Amino acid sequence: MKRQLIKVVPIILLFVLIISSADLLRAQQPVASFYYDDGGHVTRQARDTNGDGKMDRWSHYNGQGQIERIEQDVNFDGKPDMLVYYENGKPRRQEVASKNDGRIDLWYLLDPNGKVERKGQDPNRTGKPTLWVYYQDGQPLRAEEQNSSSGAVNRSVYFRDGTINRVEEDTNADGRPDSFAFYENGQLIRKELDRKHTGKADLWGYYQDNRLVKQEEDLRGDGTVSRIIYFQNETVVRREEDTMGRQRMDIIEAFAQGKLIKRLRDTKGSGKWDAVYVFENDQIVREERDTDADGIFDLRIFYADGQIKRQEGDTNGDRRVDVWVTFENGERVEQLEDQHSRGTISARYTFKNGQVIEQEAVADAQPPAMALPFGAAEDELRSMTASAGVQTNEARATAVTAGLQSDNRTK
């Protein structure tokens, strides 16, 4: 047992001596070095802040002994990666190389109290800040993204109470914003676009839970809304359009699973719906019309594979079919008529190449069964126009424009 102790003790003593020597050498390394001018004023100070024997903080002073600049090696790799500039002894600017490559990519401009007034970033590694964030009392007010070549502002983000409130973008680099996005409580509620770069919006999008629910368009550039599209789960469910420029919608379309299923039209611009179109798998299958604008639909046309197959008409306004027309390959081949309003067929005409080739009187024959009674079109019209969205577009456009002007005044 004693022999083992005699062998181990020298090893332990040697280890202790090595450690003690290292501590002694470290203790002998200077923690700070001072440099003076001829007048005995400190001009520079170098300091080892982590005790590894390497200087990692350099302070520079002016002739009056006031600090002007501090350089610091934050990650202790031997190169300064943070610089702080002082005015009248107070920090006013800070530059940081955040990627550990020695290249400055963050800039902080400070107010006299040391609070950040502006923060610059170089996300594209161009060597100069192209993204600036402006602050007040520690809260962001505005952010600007600049073109790295021209320095022009491409995108501005405005904040309210530290939360994003509005975003403006210049999408064509002409120096004027043409895209506007508005937020409430951090949620997108509206977008406005100037697609033609005329200085006024021509497309408005409205959002709920950051999803598009309605879109309005000025298709003619006259400042009024001429098309409205409604969405559910970001899929089109309804579309309204003013194609005649009469300050009222003359087309309404309904969609199911993104596919067109029904269309209403005011074909004469009279303010009355006079045509209904029904679609299946994006192809028209039925059309109904009010041909004399009396508010009663009196013509019905059936289609198959996009071609007209059958036509039914009410020629005397009693809401009963008294004309039946059959088509083949898009051409009329037969026409049946109830000429005495008795609900029975009294005449038959045969056609070829658009001309009557045979005419026959019929003694009260039974007519073909109607697929739908007349009046179905009116029911469809009522169901589609029950939405509050059907109104003149003038007032809607005025309200939107007023909202945009109000928002612009708060810039």
Structure description:
- By secondary structure, the chain is mainly beta.
- Helices cover 13% and strands 45% of the residues.
- It contains 3 helices and 28 strands.
- The chain has a 28-stranded antiparallel beta sheet, with helices on one face.
- The chain is rod-shaped.
- The termini are far apart.
- The relative contact order is 0.05.
Which runs of at least 5 residues are low in confidence (pLDDT < 50)?
1-27, 388-411
Give average pLDDT, whole number. Answer: 83
Oligomer: single chain
Kindly estimate the percentage of residues that lie in beta strands according to DSSP: over 45%
Cα radius of gyration in angstroms: 41 Å
Number of helices: 3
How many E-type strands? 28
End-to-end distance: 88 Å
Largest sheet: 28 strands, antiparallel
- What helical percentage do the residues reach? 10-25%
Structural class: mainly beta
The best one-word shape is: rod-shaped
Concise summary:
13% of the residues lie in helices and 45% in strands. It is mainly beta. The protein has a 28-stranded antiparallel sheet, covered by helices on one side.
Describe the protein's topology.
Elements: H1 2-28, E1 32-36, E2 42-47, E3 57-61, E4 67-72, E5 82-87, E6 90-96, E7 106-110, E8 116-121, E9 131-136, E10 139-146, E11 153-160, E12 163-169, E13 179-184, E14 187-193, E15 203-208, E16 211-217, E17 227-232, E18 235-241, E19 251-256, E20 259-265, E21 275-280, E22 283-289, E23 299-304, E24 307-313, E25 323-328, E26 331-337, E27 345-352, E28 355-365, H2 376-384, H3 393-409
Antiparallel strand pairs: 1-2, 2-3, 3-4, 4-5, 5-6, 6-7, 7-8, 8-9, 9-10, 10-11, 11-12, 12-13, 13-14, 14-15, 15-16, 16-17, 17-18, 18-19, 19-20, 20-21, 21-22, 22-23, 23-24, 24-25, 25-26, 26-27, 27-28
